[in-house]
Design a protein that fits this description.
Structural class of chain B: mainly beta
Oligomer: heterodimer
Order of helices and strands of chain B: EEEEEEEEEEE
Number of helices of chain B: 0
Largest sheet of chain A: 7 strands, mixed
Shape of chain B: globular
Strand content of chain B: over 45%
Number of helices of chain A: 0
Shape of chain A: globular
Low-confidence stretches of chain A: none
Low-confidence stretches of chain B: none
């Protein structure tokens, strides 16, 4: 148990569906992240939220839409995805403090997404 | 941008020592992390280096040379349960001031009896 909970753990969706991934962190952190993990590729940083504001968007297609309603919750809304979007989507959180660079990022268990 | 390179796969024998190397080229360096990831599970934190030198934590040690853009993870007294992927990650402070963590492809370590 890392303190970061993701649901659902597994999701199969059609290309015309709309679904959402949910992440909740119980660590009191102020930054949350979405990463994508595909086979034989590095973990790809998708979005960063710091103090509930989106501070990074690494050229992610608009069919992925993040939402951070508060510092404990993060969503990834999915719409008209492609089969190549099938991957493990990992949520993470950290305490982002300018004065201390040693803060670890803690990951959730991930949501396995299959687009058919 | 950032380039983070590590070997794709390694095999080592139970009880032995293995060193997993990581090289990086990046701007705005703000620390290097090693994570362990078992198949189907979340990455878990192993070690953190921001200054040059060796950090030891039980059977695991991590080394950093910032001038060379080089780090290694050393695993001693290997156990079968150490079979996993080991991810090297470099933290950079982005233009907005947020700390971002960028990962290499990971090294899949197989420990054999």
């Amino acid at each position: 148990e890392t303190g970061v909970t993701q649901t659902p753990r597994h999701l199969v969706m059609g290309m015309t569906n709309k679904k959402s991934l949910k992440c909740e962190q119980h660590l009191g952190h102020n930054a949350m992240y979405w990463y994508k993990q595909s086979a034989k590729k590095p973990l790809e940083l998708m979005f960063v939220y710091s103090l509930e504001e989106r501070v990074e968007n690494n050229s992610v297609p608009s069919r992925f839409s993040p939402e951070c309603p508060n510092s404990s919750h993060l969503f990834l809304h999915l719409h008209t995805l492609q089969p190549e979007d099938s991957a493990l989507y990992l949520c993470a959180s950290s305490q982002d403090d300018v004065s201390d660079s040693g803060n670890t990022i803690y990951f959730g268990e991930g949501s396995w997404l299959t687009v058919v | 941008g950032q380039n983070i390179d590590q070997p794709t796969e390694m095999t080592a024998t139970e009880g032995a020592i293995v060193q997993i190397n990581c090289t990086y080229q990046t701007s705005g360096f703000n620390g290097l992390f090693w994570y362990q990831q078992h198949a189907g599970e979340a990455p878990t934190f192993l070690s953190y280096n921001v200054l040059d030198g060796l950090e030891e934590k039980g059977r695991f040690s991590s080394f950093l040379s910032r001038s060379k853009g080089y780090s290694y993870l050393l695993l001693k007294e290997l156990q079968m349960k150490d079979s996993a992927s080991y991810l090297c990650a470099v933290r950079m402070r982005g233009q907005t001031g947020a700390n971002n963590l960028f990962f290499g492809t990971g090294t899949r370590l197989t420990v054999i009896p």
